[in-house]
Design a protein that fits this description.
heterodimer, A: mainly alpha, Arc Repressor Mutant, subunit A, 3-stranded antiparallel β-sheet, 3 strands, about 10% strand, B: alpha+beta, Alpha-D-Glucose-1,6-Bisphosphate, Chain A, domain 4
Amino acid sequence: MTAQGLDEVFGALADPTRRAILARLASGDANVGELTAPFRMSQPAISRHLKVLERAGLISRRRRATARLSHLEAEPLREAAAWLVGYREYWEESYERLDALLSTLDRREASASTSRSRPGTSAKPKRKGVPDGQDQSHR
Amino acid sequence: MGKTRVTAEPGVPFIETEREFDAPRDLLFRAFTDPELLVQWMGPRKYVMEIDRYELRDGGTWRYVHRDADGNEFGFHGVFHGTPSPDGMVQTFEFEPVPGHVALDELRFEERGGRTIVRTHSVYQSVADRDAMVESGMEGGMDEGYERLEELVDRLAPVRA
């Protein structure tokens, strides 16, 4: 997707009503009346939101009999999602490792907390009486 | 599924992240600033992290390297601005393969009932710089499936509902 296309997708997603419309369309096509029902908004207002979504390629619209149905186009959304997913996964994986580290630190602190004077300010934690021998201070 | 929230609004060169941890703030600050602890969690598991220098003070510099199993190295470095504290820290960030493209990172630690919310706010020199940074971290992201579409829409949301 081009940067401009991405901007349009993100711009279209930057609105809670439009996200709710997409979430509704994820469970099936709908006409404008059905899409308006959950909101305290007029049908023309919802139609304007649909136009923005259509321009961004996030939905397509087609006529069936007299109704005009909106259909979710998942691909641009998937591409836009993938754009941030890698970045997010980088941090989520790091933070999951941090979760695990914090829980071991918590246990160590609990078992060695007799006379800690200034918690959190020391760049080199003093491992008072912690016998697990995993000191790697000089790597 | 993950709990890290990433926000990148269109048209502005920022990325924000937010993540809650089940630990007090002082411990979080230590995990973010003690080189011995940092190497144990920073970055995906496939990299070994080595810290060259980490001068935790106003004007101090830092540099670390991520090394993968094939011996490829990715270096990062920057400078601390202001005295880092559990209230927050500000530092520059530069990915060495693209010198001259420097981001300004701010970290905040907020404690709530024994839990801590870590927020980061990164400012890039341009939207293009930010997007390049995001794209460089994109590998592996494409296999995300369709099935959690609703969750995706929610998570993507550049503005919170």
